[in-house]
Design goal:
It is built from ten helices and nine strands. With 334 residues, it is α+β, with helices and mostly antiparallel strands. The chain folds into two domains: 206 residues, Orthogonal Bundle (Triger factor/SurA peptide-binding fold), CATH 1.10.4030; 99 residues, Chitinase A, domain 3, CATH 3.10.50. Helix 1 crosses helix 4.
């Protein structure tokens, strides 16, 4: 068990799979192209899913907004704003194709279950996208058509030619409209992420911890007895008996971490210790632990990964609260 196993995961199945289609296009064309993991497509009055600016010269019409035609079937409404069924079906098909490309057999029981979950994630992401852009509008935050067109042009430049770019779209069942809409979503996701989580602290209390992982309580209790009797030191015992292959060879050292990273039981025990002291047997979903506090720092700088995790956690919490107070009507069977 390594520290990363404890890290909360915030990216949805949709974001993971859909990156193979739309997001991978951005990454495949340029490894340096920044990509938001949470987007936000279209909002608008009346019949536009998104506040569609006037059409401008460039690749993306209507600023990447998806326009809903009169009497068009809908997949959902978010605070009265429509999500067209065609958009849901198109993105669902793209995501399913990407899943198959990853080697999933759609006819197997596992594949059928994965596809069912994937469709639910596609709709959930589309709903979140609308919520994010609606909130951006309330805060007078906008994304200009020029920004969207500039990103498309950069992707084309990185691809090497317009022909290679067009071929990639064709091979992956994408249209330029799909790409424009997703870039729009990404941009709104980026600006709202900055608005919601841009001012989080970068220095917080952290602890430097080692642990020994056990599968059986009797083994944990026997090890604790050895430690209490002074018959062995913590690092040596970890190397001998810990079930955590990732940290065993370095004496169970998990490194530094702040609050809200480890499971609650593990965190509570670790932060309650004084440097040099070890805990009793602590149970988490990963097994049984004896934890030793090596060091404590009241204001240690967070790593870039932990900063991003904190930002994503804050954004996810904000989005969950937004969902709870919004009127969301699902009009399609997932």
């Amino acid at each position: 068990m390594h520290q990363e196993l404890f890290m909360p995961r915030f990216r949805s199945l949709f974001a993971t799979i859909f990156c193979v289609s739309v997001f991978v296009l951005l990454a495949a064309c340029s490894e340096n192209q920044p990509i938001a993991t949470t987007g936000a497509p279209t909002i608008a009055p009346a019949q536009a899913v998104g506040t569609a600016p006037p059409a401008q010269a460039g690749y993306c019409k209507n600023g990447g907004a998806v326009v809903v035609q009169a009497n068009e079937p809908l997949a959902a409404r978010v605070n009265g704003q429509p999500i067209p069924l065609s958009l849901y079906q198109r993105q669902g098909a793209q995501a399913e194709a990407a899943l198959v490309q990853q080697g999933v057999d759609p006819n197997s029981d596992q594949g059928k279950e994965a596809l069912k979950g994937l469709r639910a994630q596609v709709l959930s992401q589309l709903i979140d996208d609308v919520l994010v852009e609606q909130e951006a509008k309330k805060q007078n935050i906008s994304v200009s058509p020029n920004e969207i067109n500039d990103r498309v042009q950069q992707i084309i430049n990185d691809a090497g030619s317009k022909e290679k770019f067009d071929q990639y779209l064709t091979n992956n069942q994408l249209t330029i409209e799909d790409l424009c809409q997703q870039i729009r979503s990404n941009l709104f996701g980026e600006v709202m992420m900055a608005s919601v989580a841009g001012n989080l602290p970068t220095k917080v209390e952290q602890v430097h911890v080692a642990h020994i992982l056990f599968a059986k309580r009797e083994d944990a209790e026997a090890a604790l007895q050895k430690l209490n009797s002074g018959g062995t030191d913590f690092a040596t015992l970890a190397k001998q008996v810990s079930q955590d292959e990732a940290t065993r060879d370095n004496g169970g050292d998990l490194g530094w971490f702040p609050r809200d990273v480890m499971p609650p039981e593990f965190e509570q025990a670790a932060f309650a210790l004084q440097p040099g002291k070890f805990s009793g047997v602590v149970t988490t979903q990963l097994g049984l632990h004896i934890i030793k506090l090596l060091e404590r720092d009241p204001a240690r700088a967070l790593s870039p990964e932990l900063i991003q995790n904190q930002r994503q956690a804050a954004f996810t919490t904000w989005l969950d609260q937004l969902r709870k107070k919004s009127k969301i009507e699902t009009l399609v069977q997932e």
